[in-house]
Structure formats: C-alpha cells, structure tokens
Design brief:
Layout lengths: L1 H15 L6 E5 L4 E3 L3 E2 L2 E4 L5 E7 L5 E7 L5 E3 L3 E2 H4 L4 E8 L7 E7 L3 E4 L13 E3 L4 E5 L11 E5 L6 E2 L5 E5 L10 E11 L2 E11 L49 H10 L1 H10 L6 H5 L18 E4 L2 E4 L10 H7 L5 H13 L4 H14 L3 H10 L1 H18 L8 H37 L1
Parallel strand pairs: 12-18
Antiparallel strand pairs: 1-4, 2-11, 3-8, 4-7, 5-6, 5-9, 9-10, 10-11, 13-16, 14-17, 15-16, 17-18, 19-20
Helix pairs in contact: 3-4, 6-9, 6-10, 9-10, 10-11
Amino acid sequence: MKLGLFAIFSLFVLMIVPIYAEVTTITLEKIFYIIDEEISFSGTENEGDKMVTVIVKDPNGNPEVLSDFSDSEGKYETIPQSVKNIFSINGIYNVTAFVDKIEEGITMQLEFDGEKVFKVPDFVLQLKSISDYSVEVEKTITFTASLEDSSVGDVVFSLRNQPIGATIDPSSGKFVWTIPGKYGSFQDVDYSFDIVVNSEAQEDRENITITVKKAYDEPETTELETTELETTELETTEPETTEPETTELEIPAPFVDEAKEPQSYVDRYINEASYKKWFDDNYPEYSSIYEAIGLEEPIIEEPEFGECGEGTKLIDGKCTIVAIQSKGGGCLIATAAYGSEMAPQIQFLREIRDNQLMNTDSGISFMTGFNQFYYSFSPTIADMQRENPIFKEAVKLWITPLLSSLSVMSYAESESQVIGYGIGVILMNIGMYFVAPVMLFYGIRKVRRAKF
C-alpha cells in the first residue's frame, strides 16, 4: 500500500512540477567492450537527483530501455548489462540519454561487429604528411608528427619497423634518432618505416624514409705508370722497353681507419667473401691484407707430408691462409676476445661444432636455433670488445669456464651421446653461471646475519 501511494505521489509530482533538467554528457568507461563483458552508460545532467533514461536502438529501430537516478551532483550510471543482451545484430546503434523528452537528450553512436561494441568516432584521424630526411652518421634527426585535425585528443603515437635506437614520444609525437657510427657504409643506406597514430578505434600511419649518407668513399685504385716502348729505326735493333716505374706503397693503405683495430680488417678479409674480393680487386699491389694494414703476417710452419692445418690450404708448396667457410658461422664474441680466428680457443670451438654437432641431426637442429639467437646480439658485443680493452678482458675471463666445459663434447660420437653430453654441458654451465653465484650470495647473507 505504501509503495503504491509513493508511486502515485511521484507520478503526480512529475505531472505538476516542470522539469528543467537536461542531460549534458553520455559516455562509456572503456574504448570498447567484447561480447562477454558487461556494459554501462554514464554521464551528467545539470540538476541532480533526477531520473535519467537511456534508450539503445538497434539498426532496425528496436529499443532497449535503461534508467538510473543521478546523484546530487548530477552524475548517473546505468546498471551494468551483458553486451550480448543489448547488442544482437551487427551495425550502428543510437544511444540516447534524456531526463524528460527524448528529443532534448544527447545521442551517441555505437557500432557492433559481432565480437565487440565500440563508439563510432565523430572525427577523422589523419596524420599530416611527413617528408623524407637525409642525415649523416653520428648526427641526430628529430621532428614532431602531428594531425590534420589538432582538436583530436587522447591519441597515441608509435613506430613500426623502425631502425634500432629510433624513438617517438607516445603523447607529443616527437621523433628522435641519433645515427650510430656502426651504420657507416661505402654508400647511402635507406631506412623506411611507419609513423602510427591511434585514437579510439581509428588508426592512421605515414611511411617515412631516412637516408643515412655514406660515411666514407671507396678508395681509388692506384695504377702503376708505364712508359712507352722505344724502338729504333734500324731493322736489326731489337725494340727496347723500359721497366714500369714503381710507386712506393702507402702503409697503412688509404682505406685503413687508424682508429680501428688492424685485426678487424684481417677478420673481415678472412670471413667476408665480398670484402676479400673488394680488397683483391682494388689493391693488387699489396701482397696481402697484412701488408696493407701494416701488420706482420704470421709465419706458418711448413707441414710434414704436404698437409696444412685448419684455416690454411697448400698452394704452390706453401700453407696459405684461406677464408674459412663456417657451417654455422664464426664465434664473433670469442674471436674478438682472443684476437684472431686462428687462436687455439677458436680452433677448439670450430672442431666441436664441425666434428660433433654438425654430424648429427640433433646437433644441426640445435645449431640452427642457437645461431638465430646468437647472431642477434653477438656483433654488438664483438664491436664493444674491440672498442674497450677492459671489457674485452672481462669477456675473455667470463667465457673461459664455458670453453673448458665444452671439452666434454669432444667425446660424443653418436646421436645419443651428443644429446646426453649436450644436456650435461648445459646443466653444468647453468650451475657455474647461475646456481653457484646464487648459493654464494645466500651463503654470505646467512653468515652476515649470524654475526649480527
């Protein structure tokens, strides 16, 4: 009875008292809702303590009615409902919130694609055109990405397929990239990537190309000058020739950067076929890469019975250094640590790889996966070693136990032995490099606690 009287009284008040409240905003708490979530509508009206009605009309015009009382400050929020209970067919839905008359309410549009519902943007997200840039090595390039419509808010900037070291501020769109020296080349290099902006359900991207100018020119080939042959008018006189004038070789050669380690040129000559061809074609006047860079060529003892060691080949009765064709690539970190591909430690690693691992299916599979991981970071570590002698010695000290543990693999002769010994070596190194330090740390910590 009391509830009925209250309802009649409320209806009477609504009929005789003019309503001036108006809904001022309607929004969603999230950018989108998936079909298994619950959705609610919230906003404000300008009076406070009013009944706010929210009508959701599907693409066919069928309504779903929700309502809620606003608080004293005019804030309202409908009771959360399952998305699949309100949105059943794909298309555009009109959501209108009002206090008294629906025509005086505020409407927003939502789109349902069968999996999620999201607000239809009332703006077009578009990046302004970004021009391409050209920059030198070790220089910094910076610019700010912006939108055609500057009134659009809540945007997030990002990069796709960008070069290493390039960054963009997610809020302001400021792009910064300092080109490191390792990008230096004999020719211009183009780096193409995308500037991306997102806002609500929209995305736009602009492709940009940054050209890193060549760091240095390819040295020109020095040609030996020759004199013309002189002949006499007498038929009985044999033509006389003059020996070509020889020019004194420049040592080190013009292409050598004295700031770099000379051994790095030897390593490239031995391991990079394209670099070896470039040197041989352009600098035939030098007897070897060692002479060109000013290093003394290592003396290789003549083998007995005409056999040469790893990395050399018998040519004209002499063991000559040849480029090593690695089955799985060279160990860049160890080579930089020990200074040469011909170091005993590198020879040991090469023998383990070629004689044990590469002769079994499991070993080949392991090397394939390991190389993909190893060569993602080893060139950078090797460059750091060449630039920092202290770091080089630290790396050498760090990898010495690893090399010692790998000696176990030399006893593996079959597929099962390679797998068994390999697992043993992995566990041994986990113990040396991770478990032992942790145990030592906790042991020291326990002793210190006992003292105090």
